[in-house]
Design a protein that fits this description.
Length: 288
Amino acid sequence: MKKLILALCIAALGAPTPAQDHATSKPTSQPEVRWTAVKTPLATCVVSGEPLEADSKRMFEAGGRTFSTCCGRCKTKVEGSPEAYVEKLDAAIAKAQNAHYPLDRCPISGEEISTDAKLLVLEDTLVKLCCGGCVSKARARGPELAAMVVAKAYQHQVASYPVAKCAVSQDEFDAEDAVDVMVGTQLIRLCCDHCVEDVQKNPAKFAAKIAAASAAKKSPHGDLPSSRPSGAEHGKQGHDGERGGPRDAGSDAASGSGCCAGQSTGCCAEKATKPSCCSATSPAKTRG
C-alpha cells in the first residue's frame, strides 16, 4: 500500500499543469539561437509619426526602453519624458509584430487566445495574454517569454521563408548557411554578415520587403505579377517589341525582309509550308 501511495505522489509531482501543457512548458531541446535581434523595428517616428529615414533617424535608450525618432528635436522630447511615449511605442511595436505572432495560447494560463486578447510588450516583443489577470505574472517572466515568442516565430518562418535571395544584396543564399536577423518577430535571411549592418540601419524597410514577398507567395494569383503584356499591348508591340503585331512569315517571304531575310535553313527554310514559323509563338527564330 505504501508503495502504491508513493508511486501516485511521484506521478502527481511529475504531471504538468494545464498551462505547462501549452506554451509555458519548456521544450525538451531549445532551438539554437542563430539570429541577430533588432529592437523596435518601427517605420515611423514615435513622436511625430513621420517616416524614419536611415540617414537621419535617431535610435536611443530612454527610461529603460529603446526609442526611434525622426530627428534630434523629437529625441529631446522623448528623453525629457520617456514615460509619456511608452504607450505609443508599445502600440507601434504590437502593430508591427502582430502579423507574425506565433502562439495561439496564453503563455501563462495555457488558455486559447481570443480576438480580444490582452496585448503586452515585454523586452520590445509582443506577448498576447488571455486576460488582464495574467499581466503581473507575465511581467515577472518578461525576458523568458519574449525569448520564447521570438524563437517560435523563427521556427515558423524559417520553414517557409518566401524567397531564396538575400534581402539586401539580392544574391542567392544557401539555406543552411544563411545569416538570419529577427526584426522583432519578422525573419530576414541574408547572404553574409556584411548585410546585417544594412538591416540594422533600416530594419522596417527590409521587414516590409519580406512581408510583401510572403503575402505574394500566399496569394492565389501567384508569387509575382506577370510581366507579360496584355493581349492589346502584345498586338501593338509585336513579338519583336515593334508596333504592328506579330510578324507573318508569308509577308516576310513576299518582301524578302524580316527575321527570315537571307536565311535558308531551319525554321526559315520551311516558311512556305509553315507560315507561323517566324511568329511570336515560334520556339525557334533565326534573325537576319
